[in-house]
Amino acid sequence: MDYIRRIRSLREDNDYTQREVAALLNVGQRTYADYEYGKTRIPLESMIKLAKFYNVDMNYICGVSDVRASFLSNK
User: Which PROSITE patterns does its entry note (predicted)?
Assistant: First the structure.
């Protein structure tokens, strides 16, 4: 699973709307939708913010790992 599908899955699993997550990232809903559809690359700073928000490791949110470790985990 790549990061595009991962950020959408995390949002849906946590029952957030695109508008709510967009507000967290200080972008418009359309911009966030473009992130989820792969039309626009999500900035690294936003990926970090999402990882912190969902409390998941960057390797997980980026699709590098399927292990859902917490953000600050040293594992």
Answer: HTH_CROC1 (PS50943)
